Amino acid sequence: MTLNELKYIIAVAKEKHFRKASETCFVSQPTLSVAIKKLEEELGVILFERRKQDVLITPI
Questions:
Q1: Which has the least CB within 10 A, 21, 44, 46, 55?
Q2: If you average pLDDT over residues 19-23, what whole number do you get?
């Protein structure tokens, strides 16, 4: 896990929305989404429950 990936996780958990988190991190939404998805695959866990209106961090 890189420092940027950790920053992305914190931003998504705080904002509860990928677009808002990407704006906070000054990256595009696809960049943030791909980084989170890649990290989930690397760790073998789902970090966020993706819903229509928001995103919730999972209790891992």
A1: 44
A2: 97
